[in-house]
Amino acid sequence: MTAQSDRARGGLVARARTWVDSGGLRDRNVLLLGLILLLVVAMTALDAAGITTGRFNSDYLVGSLINYVPLALLALAQLFVITTGRGSIDLSVGSIVSVVGMVFGLLYVNAGWPLVQAVVAALIVSALLGAVNGVLTAYFGYPALITTLATYYAFQSIALVITGASPISGANIAGLYSAADSIELPLIGAYLPLVPLGMFTFVLPVAVIAWLLLNRTTYGRSLYAIGTNAVAAQWAGIDTRRTQLLAFVASGLISGLVAIYTVAQFASARPDAGTSGAGMALPAITIAVLGGVAITGGIGRLSGVLLAALLIVWLNASILIVVPGNAGTQLQYLALAVVLLGASLVDALPTRRARPGKDPGAPELPVPVTTKPQ
Amino acid sequence: MTTEATAPAGRQAIGRILPPVVTGQEVVLLAVIAVLWVLLGLFTPSFLSVGSIGPLLVSVAPVALMGIGMTFVIITAGIDVSIAGMIMVCSVITAKLLVNLNLPLAPAVLIAMAIGGVLGAVNGLLVAYGRVHPIIITFGTWNLFLYIGYRVFDSSTVNAIPGTMAVFGRGAAGNTGGVPHSFVIAVVLVIAAWWFLRYTRAGRNLYAIGGDQETARLAGISVRPRLVSVYLITGLMVGLAACMTIATGTATLDQSVGNGKELEVIAAVVIGGTSIMGGRGSVVGTLLGALLVQTVRTGVTQLGWPSQLAFLFVGVFIIVAVGTDLLRERARRAA
Predict the structure, then answer these.
(1) Structural contact between residues A42 and A317, judged by C-beta atoms closer than 8 angstroms
(2) Is B83 touching A (CB cutoff 8 A)?
(3) What is the pTM of this model?
(4) Which of A160, A251, B95, B334 could form a disulfide with B158 if both were Cys (CB 3.0 to 4.6 A apart)?
(5) Which long-range contacts (CB under 8 A, 24 or more apart) does A212-217 make?
């Protein structure tokens, strides 16, 4: 093997070449981390040169994480669904955010339920909405794109019709705003920037549970298995339908959490919260794909998705203080396009044979990797 | 016909490859639309009138046109989610040219289609040569096109657009004897596309590519040029649809012009019986799908129900339409 003889000769350059040849640069997390570092260094330089309109410092970076919460969570929801394979994506997450937000608003404000009961009920509804997607896809055989396109329309419609398209607000919902506020961390907080509370109350628990589910449970293995090869997974005794159904339920539940976060953030339940403008679903899918989740299924890491969301949120925040106003908002679209297309196209470039065996996405699954002759 | 000369077995094989002239899905759709029109005619006083059907057909036209391109794309097992961005770029540039240069109709339409063609070619080249799934490519270009669109918009609206495009619109200039021009254009192009898919080698190649790209390549089909062409055609159709969008609006164009259009078009295509997995589909179905969606929207409004309720029915129709198709497919496999 040439790679090994290179390494035997030693030398930093040779070693780096070995690493590159074996696909090191193609590791999505390395690429994303590199881009994030590059961004922070470049922005710090610009800040030092006095080009930025605002201060680019840790306060600003951490403060911008308020946009990270919904984006990262919905991208995690896509991770579950896309990993099940056969072109599965969930277009309906934005509509679920709208409906569940309205359900929560109705229960909490109009019906006067206590907070905890209202949250639990809203989450149950969100899981049921996810189950509708899951049953149609896994048990009735609809392609996921069709199912979730249909429910995107249906759920959006329900959210708008419930209250005649008017938002729900009230004193107690306005009080929820503190849940989306920034806080000082206990003990060490005085030395650190204020962190948006949603990072701890929403992102951290979901990320930890999702990571455990994906990497430390039989369910996680089944999920990667059915995405890699559904037929083989079935022969291996995996209930492929149930596995896919649960992925959609997870996606629904996470969307429900985003709904509650969004209600708190805007201090009102808006019927178009998840579907106004370009909607929440397409950006979430974009982030998941940028994070290295293979649209064909079976490959995708939680860390990649979280890093991709971080890159985009910080990139957007950086653009806003270099190019202020409308032009900056517009530039964010270009930046996302360049990063997504660049990362995907570089990833697909033919390189010398990547190291055999270990696929970065699948956690040591004993499932044969199917390779399609090009 | 040359098929007369071939063995019966060969003819049967061709018959199986060729999409039927009218698929079962299209008959079902026609029946559903007919029932809806009769019911709406009974329950609302004004549904079956020129003043109501005319605008309905005008709003079907752009969706059907973009649907032609999207049907081609989906038949090759691809998808194009960048339509919202494309229509924004085409319509805003054309609208600005109309305002600033007061262009006559023909050059304006040609320019809109040329812009659409360029954007579509970008999609096509990236999909054909990029080795990346079309949905990812078009997610990327969707953002790229939004950037271009917002840049050209500059402020939030384009105002005082002259009535050059009125021939495509809802008004008196937009129809002859009660038949809207834009709908006629859509029908003519749908028939042309139907003929192309059914009777030309290039058209049938699209089904082969959707069935299995690698096999199609080994069978001697130039897959990449064909892929570029379907996205290019989608772009051209979006350009034409953008002209109709300018016409159907008032004299102003705002930034929400393309919002949600990609899903609306995909909905029409899948209700029309085109398989999202590729290899199967018809443009006639897409036209009927667009007609069904618009019928529901007009009907809900005229019944005095909340207009957003229409989307619930659209969702249900997608499930029912694709469901009957799934059942038929299962029956065909069993047979």
Answers:
(1) no
(2) no
(3) 0.85
(4) B95
(5) A213/A250, A214/A79, A214/A302, A214/A363, A215/A302, A215/A363
Query: Cα separation of B77 and A261, whole Å?
Result: 37
Tokens of A154: 């249906």
Given a contact cutoff of 8 angstroms between Cβ atoms, the answer to whether A209 and A281 are in contact is: no
Between chains, do A160 and B306 touch, taking CB under 8 Å as contact? yes
A153: which chain B residues are within 8 Å (Cβ-Cβ)? Answer: 263, 267, 311-312, 314-315, 318
Query: How far lies A106's CA from each of B45, B162, B307, in Å?
Result: 36, 46, 21
CB contact under 8 A, A345 and B130: yes
Query: Residue A59 corresponds to which tokens in the numbers above?
Result: 């306060």
Query: Is some CB atom of chain A closer than 8 A to the CB atom of B140?
Result: yes
Yes or no, beta carbons of A340 and B136 under 8 Å apart: yes
| Predicted ipTM of the assembly | 0.85
Chain B residues lying within 8 Å of A87, measured CB to CB: 135, 276-277
DSSP H helical ranges for chain A: 2-9, 12-21, 28-48, 58-63, 68-83, 93-105, 115-134, 144-162, 171-175, 198, 204-216, 218-228, 230-235, 240-266, 281-290, 302-322, 326-348
- Residue-wise pLDDT tens digits, B12-68: 555 555 555 666 778 888 989 999 999 998 988 888 887 888 889 999 999 999 999
Report the amino acid identity of residue B88: M
